[in-house]
Recover the amino acids of this structure.
């Protein structure tokens, strides 16, 4: 579709539903530079981070906003923050007013992932919890208990987490818990083993058990199993 060259090393690439692209680069005089392109590859603007590191970026479903997750590791405690930029203002050169929202997390909370969902809610994963920024309000969706092994926010309107539950001396089950990010209603799917990985996209959750893959379809609330056969 298009090609371009950027200075430094590419750390992460994000492509929106309508084709806008944001690239995190490092290895320059700045800690991170985020470069945003339109769907034809034209550079819209750059965001320079001199003292913080960009962990993740995401573009809203309507293509109006760019969210940046940043971490500052210069002090004694880790500092995480979220910045939301209005793309049209930043593209026109209005760097002063283009930042329309900023949130600083509590000290020593490490942000690891952000994702815009269908209704414009920005979901943020920290090392101990999942939060939501919606209509300029930040709320906690859930806090991780000691049994949480992994989580994902890549579904259309839910967050998903896997909790490992001991059922005996040498046996465990895994509860796959889906939380609606707006209503906070929850649904639970259980598998009678420890899972190896969990991947989600749009309306499907894939659970890797090693010899089986379970697919949960949120549209119809059904689960399919794919069996993996290996031959030596």
């Amino acid at each position: 579709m298009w090609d371009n060259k950027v200075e430094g090393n590419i750390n992460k690439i994000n492509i929106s539903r309508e084709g806008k692209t944001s690239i995190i680069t490092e290895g320059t005089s700045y800690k991170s530079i985020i470069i945003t392109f339109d769907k034809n590859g034209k550079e819209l603007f750059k965001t320079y981070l001199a003292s913080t590191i960009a962990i993740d970026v995401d573009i809203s479903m309507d293509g109006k906003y760019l969210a940046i997750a940043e971490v500052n590791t210069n002090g004694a405690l880790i500092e995480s923050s979220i910045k939301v930029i209005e793309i049209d203002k930043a593209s026109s050169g209005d760097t002063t007013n283009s930042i329309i929202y900023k949130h600083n997390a509590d000290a020593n909370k490490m942000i690891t992932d952000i994702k815009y969902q269908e209704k414009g809610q920005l979901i943020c994963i920290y090392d101990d919890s999942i939060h939501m920024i919606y209509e300029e309000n930040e709320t906690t969706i859930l806090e991780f208990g000691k049994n949480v092994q992994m989580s994902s926010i890549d579904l259309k309107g839910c967050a998903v987490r896997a909790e490992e539950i001991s059922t005996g001396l040498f046996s465990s089950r895994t509860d796959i818990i889906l939380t609606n990010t707006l209503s906070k209603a929850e649904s639970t799917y259980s598998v009678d083993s420890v899972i190896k990985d969990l991947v989600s996209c749009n309306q499907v959750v894939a659970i890797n058990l090693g010899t089986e893959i379970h697919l949960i379809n949120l549209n119809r609330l059904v689960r399919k199993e794919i069996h993996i056969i290996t031959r030596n």
In short: The first strand starts at residue 9 and ends at 15. The radius of gyration is 19 Å. DSSP finds one helix and 20 strands in the chain.
